[in-house]
Amino acid sequence: xxxxxxxxxxxxxxxSINNNLSAQMELGGELGLSISNGxxxxxxxxxxxxxPYAGIKAGLNASYKLSPIVSLESGxxxxxxxxxxxxxxxxxxxxxxxxxxxxxxxxxxxxxxxLLLKLNTTGSKVxxxxxxxPYVGLAIDGDVRTRAKLLLDFSLGKYDLNLRSNYFxxxxxxxxxxxxxxxxxxxxxxxxxxxxxxxxNDLTDEPILDVRTRRFAYxxxxxxxxxx
Length: 228
Hints:
Strand order of the largest sheet: 1-2-3-4-5-7-8-9
Largest sheet: 8 strands, antiparallel, barrel
Distance between the termini: 35 Å
Shape: elongated
Radius of gyration: 24 Å
Strand content: over 45%
């Protein structure tokens, strides 16, 4: 009888621990729009003002609950970012307005892993969330596309960037913040977030002119979260 009681108690405790651990873990798939740009310092006015670039951000994230309202969030996400540089020259020819210009579009593909401290309200219908923390990014690919405009808009070419050269810093450390809402659904949830992130180190390592470029991005994303 004692052996049967011990077996039943052991089974009950094991199932309870497993259920508690499962309730603490969440996995999600994230997809969103990214609007990115860069800040340039030390260019002595040689580089025109940078303009925003539209890309995507997608990947998997995981959350571990420390309490009902506090959790740690991490993951692995693909992030397509960049910026645009444009120079326009407009003039009249025989009283006909002529618009000309050239645009360079720099695009970078990053893999990012954040580590965020996340807070959320409790509720069965809608929960509000907020998170902040550092992230690490690795630039895996990059290119520059050029376009010209002379009455018509046409492509000039595409140039691959060697991110492994000494001119670039492939690794990036930055800060990220997120706010959003979470809608619980049985063992899953839908989460909609707005985020902002900013790199803390330079994208380029240019020793002569000391041109320092740092990227930043903001956007909206949707995540399907599953608790297991």
